[in-house]
Amino acid sequence: MKNQPTAIEPTKESDLLHIFQALGDPLRLNIVMCLLDTDGKGLKKEDYPIAKSTLSHHIKILREAGLIHCEKSGTAHYYSVQKAELNNKFPGLLELIRQEKIGKH
């Protein structure tokens, strides 16, 4: 009988690596910064002159990393940063992201 591979439980470090990989793309970092500014009021497609499918792909990566959450209302999708969860798991991370935005102005 072959040995079954054991499942590896995600660690805090691997979660953080996943977050950093998601934020490593400038567009995704910009999406998170904008969501922090708008406090979940939504993304405007006009702000991102890319194909809808490309924007959806970037949003999917952010959701899978645990950075953002989606709420649906009819046909509309509202995205927000998972502030409480991120502040609990990684204190100071959102403040660093905010400082990144301030540093670019």
TrEMBL record:
<feature type="domain" description="HTH arsR-type">
    <location>
        <begin position="8"/>
        <end position="101"/>
    </location>
</feature>
<keyword id="KW-0805">Transcription regulation</keyword>
<dbReference type="GO" id="GO:0003677">
    <property type="term" value="F:DNA binding"/>
</dbReference>
<dbReference type="InterPro" id="IPR011991">
    <property type="entry name" value="ArsR-like_HTH"/>
</dbReference>
<keyword id="KW-0804">Transcription</keyword>
<protein>
    <recommendedName>
        <fullName>HTH arsR-type domain-containing protein</fullName>
    </recommendedName>
</protein>
<dbReference type="InterPro" id="IPR036388">
    <property type="entry name" value="WH-like_DNA-bd_sf"/>
</dbReference>
<dbReference type="InterPro" id="IPR001845">
    <property type="entry name" value="HTH_ArsR_DNA-bd_dom"/>
</dbReference>
<dbReference type="Pfam" id="PF01022">
    <property type="entry name" value="HTH_5"/>
</dbReference>
<dbReference type="GO" id="GO:0003700">
    <property type="term" value="F:DNA-binding transcription factor activity"/>
</dbReference>
<dbReference type="InterPro" id="IPR051081">
    <property type="entry name" value="HTH_MetalResp_TranReg"/>
</dbReference>
<dbReference type="InterPro" id="IPR036390">
    <property type="entry name" value="WH_DNA-bd_sf"/>
</dbReference>
<keyword id="KW-0238">DNA-binding</keyword>
